[in-house]
Predict the 3D structure of the following.
Amino acid sequence: MRGKGGKQLVDVIALVRHAIDPSAPLAPVGMTVEERYQQWLADKQAAGFTFTTDQRRWLDAIKDHIASSLAIEQDDLEEVPFNAIGGLGRAYELFGDKLAAILDELNARLAA
């Protein structure tokens, strides 16, 4: 789903979801992902987790990637824009052994 057609495909998925469940609001996937991301951050804060500025920068970029591709994998962290901010190695420096769990959680919470 990468490339110029990715956003359009993501929006088609929103239409299909609405067709399957007409009671669900029809909203662009990017907006839905943003709302879910803000809720995830609020849940983390309520649970006592705090993120550094660098971690938030990465989390924001991960959220943007999910909004345009509907998922993220560790391999994606070696591509643009992540490679410009240190790639997979930097992600491990910032999140340590929690990186895989964070990616899994964000995939489940944001793109569900």
